[in-house]
């Protein structure tokens, strides 16, 4: 069961700090992260240019052994170009894509065609990144099976049964859940792993949670999950996409750069509040 980190994209003065990005990946992979998810939601993928996403991939592939590259775009040509670019790197085990978003009037046939076009463009496995809350549409297990060429799915969904259905209908598919609150559940029901934003700031806790599940210590696993839940509860009202950068600093002890507006960084009062709000969880995790 894999721990996959959807890696933050660190900005400094409006530009991506690629050295910091690589250093951050080096740190979290040393602490139990098995693979990295590049340009996902936590990585602000939809807010990055094609060139920026290529640069991130290059940096990630230089330090991580296993990379999944999120290529989703509202411009098919861009997604195809990213899929083709990914073929240069041995570390890329799959490309993943959100379904075309924003436009609610696309048909199921059109969504399926988008994924089939991606499959045709690359020899690498293509994964679905299903995130109905963000995308506005749900490509569920039945729809994914209909597409026919998908080799994996990351389902960001708080309904574990929804995620399990992919495994039921397509047993050979890699199936990951993307909700930080379902790490314990995902490991317990034997999914292929999790894509958890918390892997950016508490990778060692996720590794311990996985160990606890493996040895049947449900109580220990649950206490780690609950500490993560406390962190999420504190961070979400501040704007979680921004708070993640601060959580890296609080838990890992280094400056992780800033997000890109309109995903504005937290202001100093919010940072101080967050630090105090997660102090108990930090103590519980003994980090
Ligand atoms: C999750 C997001 C969303 C992780 C990615 C991920 O960032 O690409 O539960 O909606 O806050 O999809 O972190 O998480 P929620 O895979």
Automatic annotation (TrEMBL):
<comment type="similarity">
    <text>Belongs to the DapA family. KDPG aldolase subfamily.</text>
</comment>
<keyword id="KW-0704">Schiff base</keyword>
<feature type="active site" description="Schiff-base intermediate with substrate">
    <location>
        <position position="154"/>
    </location>
</feature>
<dbReference type="InterPro" id="IPR002220">
    <property type="entry name" value="DapA-like"/>
</dbReference>
<feature type="binding site">
    <location>
        <position position="42"/>
    </location>
    <ligand>
        <name>pyruvate</name>
    </ligand>
</feature>
<feature type="active site" description="Proton donor/acceptor">
    <location>
        <position position="129"/>
    </location>
</feature>
<comment type="pathway">
    <text>Carbohydrate acid metabolism; 2-dehydro-3-deoxy-D-gluconate degradation; D-glyceraldehyde 3-phosphate and pyruvate from 2-dehydro-3-deoxy-D-gluconate: step 2/2.</text>
</comment>
<protein>
    <submittedName>
        <fullName>2-keto-3-deoxy gluconate aldolase</fullName>
    </submittedName>
</protein>
<dbReference type="GO" id="GO:0008675">
    <property type="term" value="F:2-dehydro-3-deoxy-phosphogluconate aldolase activity"/>
</dbReference>
<dbReference type="InterPro" id="IPR053415">
    <property type="entry name" value="ED_pathway_aldolase"/>
</dbReference>
<dbReference type="Pfam" id="PF00701">
    <property type="entry name" value="DHDPS"/>
</dbReference>
<dbReference type="InterPro" id="IPR013785">
    <property type="entry name" value="Aldolase_TIM"/>
</dbReference>
<dbReference type="GO" id="GO:0008840">
    <property type="term" value="F:4-hydroxy-tetrahydrodipicolinate synthase activity"/>
</dbReference>
<comment type="subunit">
    <text>Homotetramer; dimer of dimers.</text>
</comment>
<keyword id="KW-0456">Lyase</keyword>
<feature type="binding site">
    <location>
        <position position="195"/>
    </location>
    <ligand>
        <name>pyruvate</name>
    </ligand>
</feature>
<keyword id="KW-0119">Carbohydrate metabolism</keyword>
């Amino acid at each position: 069961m894999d721990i996959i980190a959807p890696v933050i994209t660190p900005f400094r003065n409006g530009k991506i700090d690629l050295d910091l990005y690589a250093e951050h990946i080096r740190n979290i992979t040393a602490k139990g992260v098995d693979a990295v998810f590049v340009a996902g939601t936590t990585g602000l993928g939809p807010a990055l240019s094609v060139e920026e996403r290529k640069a991130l991939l290059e940096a990630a592939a230089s330090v991580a052994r296993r990379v999944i590259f999120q290529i989703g775009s509202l411009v098919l040509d861009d997604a195809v170009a990213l899929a083709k670019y990914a073929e240069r790197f041995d570390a890329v085990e799959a490309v993943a894509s959100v379904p075309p978003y924003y436009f609610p009037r696309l048909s199921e046939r059109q969504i399926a065609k988008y994924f089939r076009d991606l499959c045709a463009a690359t020899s690498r496995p293509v994964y679905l990144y299903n995130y109905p809350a963000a995308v506005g549409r749900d490509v569920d297990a039945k729809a994914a099976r209909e597409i026919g060429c998908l080799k994996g799915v990351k389902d960001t969904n708080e309904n574990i049964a929804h995620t399990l259905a992919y495994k039921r209908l397509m047993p050979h598919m890699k199936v990951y859940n993307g909700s930080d609150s379902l790490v314990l559940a995902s490991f317990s029901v034997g999914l292929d792993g999790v894509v958890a934003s918390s892997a950016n700031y508490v990778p060692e806790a996720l590794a311990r949670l996985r160990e606890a599940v493996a040895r049947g210590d449900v109580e220990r696993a649950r206490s780690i999950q609950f500490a993560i839940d406390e962190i999420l509860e504190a961070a979400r009202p501040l704007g979680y996409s921004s708070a993640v950068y601060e959580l890296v600093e609080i838990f890992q002890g280094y400056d992780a750069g800033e997000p890109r507006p309109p995903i504005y960084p937290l202001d100093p009062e919010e940072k101080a509040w967050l630090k105090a709000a997660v102090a108990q969880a930090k103590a519980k995790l003994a980090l």
